[in-house]
Design brief:
This protein has helices at about 1-10, 15-25, 30-45, 45-60, 65-75, 80-95, 100-110, 115-130, 135-145, 150-160, 165-180, 185-195, 200-210. It is built from 13 helices and no strands. By secondary structure, the chain is mainly α. The protein is elongated, with a radius of gyration of 21 Å. Helix 3 (about 30-45) runs parallel beside helix 5, helix 7 (about 100-110) runs antiparallel to helix 8 (about 115-130) and helix 12 (about 185-195) crosses helix 13 (about 200-210).
């Protein structure tokens, strides 16, 4: 299974499917293998077969929240929006904290410098919990690393919409604004971050503007 997961992370979906199929042959009751093979098929664009694998995982375990969510995403891809909504609703009913699972996975990929993989997981977390300031913040970090500064600014702004006291987000939004030459906006964010206790922002204001919070 580990080798299959590694191929999935690398984007070699064909090899991943082969390894997951072997795992299923060894253990036909493996919910994880069906769910993971479904994910590989979905990422390769084979949504009908992916839905079939997710459905088998759900048959094996009717409480498999992640399989419900994955099936919802696959259904949405073939424009079965009603089915997708029903599966997404069931996923959250079975596991209200499922969004945190994806957020944590995103953080692991972020720490491994897999920023696109991190963004994918943070996006999933936000689909499950559209008001998650933390997931917006983390996705902003990943976009920032990919030099998508405008995208990062948008995510930082969304994070602050749901939690206006995130000093580190003001600091990082200031950095991103500097990259897109919004210097006035950056200074406002540095000042807000400093007021909320961010040491880096306080030092920046002192060194660049001679101000002390």
């Amino acid at each position: 299974m580990l080798q299959a997961e590694e191929q999935l992370d690398k984007g070699d979906y064909k090899s991943a499917i082969t390894f997951f199929t072997k795992a299923i042959e060894l253990d036909p009751q493996s919910i994880e293998a069906y769910n993971s093979r479904g994910s590989a098929k979905a990422k390769s664009g084979d949504y009908p077969d992916a839905i079939e694998d997710f459905s088998i995982a759900i048959e094996l375990d009717p409480n498999a929240a992640e399989a419900y969510y994955n099936r919802a995403a696959a259904k949405a891809s073939i424009e079965d929006h009603k089915g997708a909504r029903e599966d997404r609703k069931m996923a959250m009913k079975l596991d209200p904290k499922l969004s945190l699972v994806y957020d944590n996975r995103g953080l692991i990929k972020y720490l491994r410098d897999n920023y696109q993989g991190a963004i994918d997981n943070f996006t999933t977390a936000l689909e499950l919990d559209p008001k998650s300031a933390i997931a917006y913040k983390h996705r902003g970090y990943a976009k920032h690393e990919m030099k998508d500064y405008q995208g990062a600014i948008e995510d930082y702004t969304s994070a602050l919409t749901f939690d206006a006291k995130l000093a580190d987000v003001y600091w990082n939004r200031a950095l991103a604004k500097s990259q897109v030459e919004d210097n006035e906006g950056a200074i406002k964010d540095y000042k807000k971050a400093a007021k909320l206790g961010n040491i880096s922002a306080q030092n920046w204001l002192k060194e660049n503007l001679g101000e002390e919070e």
